[in-house]
Design goal:
With 165 residues, the chain is α+β, with helices and mostly antiparallel strands. It has four helices and eight strands. The strands form two sheets. Strands 1, 2, 3, 4, 5 and 8 form a six-stranded antiparallel β-sheet that branches. A two-stranded antiparallel ribbon has the order 6-7. Helix 3 (124-133) packs antiparallel against helix 4. The radius of gyration is 15 Å and the shape is globular.
C-alpha cells in the first residue's frame, strides 16, 4: 500500500540548506521507495527553548512510500546518521532533524513513534511550510485543515520567515 507522508526537516549547523536538500535527495536512494517528493519553500526560524544557538532552516516534504511508519522511521534515522546527526541534547543545535508529522490518516502512539507528531500543532516552522504544499490536509485526530491550525498559532506573532533559495 502506498501512503502519503509528511516530514518536517530542520538544520542549524553547517551548510543548513545543503543539509536539507541532501536529506531529500538521500530519500530517493535509500530504501524509502519514494514515488514522488514535493518540497515546501525553506523557512528561517529562531530556535526554541535554547536561544543561544544558530537560527534554523526548516522545510516540509510530502512523499508517497510503500514503507510502514516504523520502516520509514528506521530509514530516516539512517539519513540523519549519514548526515552526521549532532544533537547532544533535546532542542539543541543539530545538523539534521527529520520528523514524521503525518502518515496518511494513521494515528500511532508507541514509545518510539507518535503520529501525528504531538508538537506540530504548536510549531509554526512545521505548519507554515506544510500549508504551502498541503493547506487542505487534515489532522487525523482533530479533523481540521493545516491551514486552520496555522491560523490559530500565527495570532501570537510570526518568527518563521520564508527565504529565497
Amino acid at each position: 500500500m502506498i501512503t502519503n507522508t509528511y516530514l518536517s526537516l530542520g538544520s542549524n549547523l553547517g551548510n543548513k540548506k545543503y543539509n536539507i536538500f541532501k536529506a531529500i535527495n538521500d530519500m530517493n536512494y535509500l530504501s524509502i521507495n519514494c514515488r514522488e517528493i514535493i518540497v515546501s519553500p525553506l523557512y528561517k526560524t529562531d530556535p526554541l527553548h535554547f536561544d543561544t544557538q544558530p537560527t534554523f532552516i526548516n522545510a516540509v516534504c510530502c512523499l508517497w512510500t510503500e514503507l510502514n511508519p516504523f520502516e520509514l522511521l528506521n530509514e530516516l534515522t539512517k539519513i540523519q546518521k549519514i548526515s552526521g546527526k549532532n544533537n547532544a541534547f533535546m532542542n539543541g543545535p543539530r545538523k539534521l532533524d527529520i520528523d514524521i508529522i503525518l502518515y496518511g490518516k494513521h494515528v500511532i502512539e508507541t514509545p518510539n513513534l507518535i503520529i501525528p507528531h504531538p508538537r506540530m500543532l504548536h510549531r509554526e516552522f512545521v505548519l507554515k511550510p506544510l500549508v504551502e504544499i498541503a493547506p487542505q490536509a487534515r489532522h487525523p485526530i482533530l479533523n481540521e485543515t493545516m491551514e486552520s491550525l496555522l491560523q490559530k498559532i500565527t495570532q501570537n506573532g510570526d518568527n518563521t520567515v520564508k527565504i529565497e533559495v
